[in-house]
Amino acid sequence: MEGQRAGLIRQEMERWEEAALSPFASLSSKSRGREKEEPACDIRPVYQRDRDRILHCKSFRRLKHKTQVFLTPKGDHYRTRLTHTLEVAQIARTVARALRLNEELTEAIALGHDLGHAPFGHAGERALAAVSACGFAHNEQSVRVVELLEKKGQGLNLTWEVRDGIRNHPTAGQPHTLEGKIVRLADKIAYINHDIDDAIRGGILAEEEIPLEYRKKLGFTTRERLNTLIHDVIYQSLGKPDICMSGEIEKAMGELRRFMFANVYTNPRAKGQEAKAENLLQALFVRYWEQPELLPEEYVRLMEEQGEARDRVVCDYIAGMTDQYATEKFQELYVPNVWSVR
Q: Which of 75, 118, 175, 287 has the most CB atoms around its CB within 10 Å?
């Protein structure tokens, strides 16, 4: 009986997608597939399976201890890289459902888009990019995490569509699916608005300091701005083979983003500790590059058995650290232990 039912649930779900989703949606049954072939799940279509793999991986759990914008903030309500990821997923799913696109694919991309982010946010990304001959970009590192680094070198073997969406989520990216395009916009919508919220909470910014012209177009609270932006994406994209915004709202969001860069993202009060974080990560890079035997065995194997460049593998290890773990490793490698005579 089990053999007769194998795959029937998944197939029924795939048929539902074909009947119910938009003609522009990415259907699970039409996926380009995985790099390594494997038996299909009997109950889950491929994108749902990818979502589950990301949710259960160690890199996802570590996001809760990685900086979003503010380094080591005092308070329980500031965003971390994990809460940012969840907010992106929520916004992206709302848009995908309204447009009858594939929610599982959208959510998988959203949950995986920042898996490769370095500790200490974009300061960490800059530090590794500056010191490594291989360079460093968090979107490419996120793909490397799911293709190679997770599960001790086995990777998660995700579908092509999920990996494409992760790789192309930055502003300059060009995702090949509408679901990937949703995540690219949802990422921007999420971080602009929650960073305003955190900046206000931290006394870096007051709501009244946001230029009135932007607030008139987008809203006078975080809730109103999110509502405006999400509705605009949905209504402008309905029935179209693209994900877009109206010119007026897109321009206002771009101006608000520039305002945030000028007043929050480069504000000395908010970013005063970033130089320390960059120096810390670069010092770790130098030590592990000079003494690769200090790396965990699985990273040493990447160099010795798979021929991976030392710069890249050292970045792999450091990028996977949480803020706290990076600080602890720096302490261990560079700060003398207290000595005493007993």
A: 118
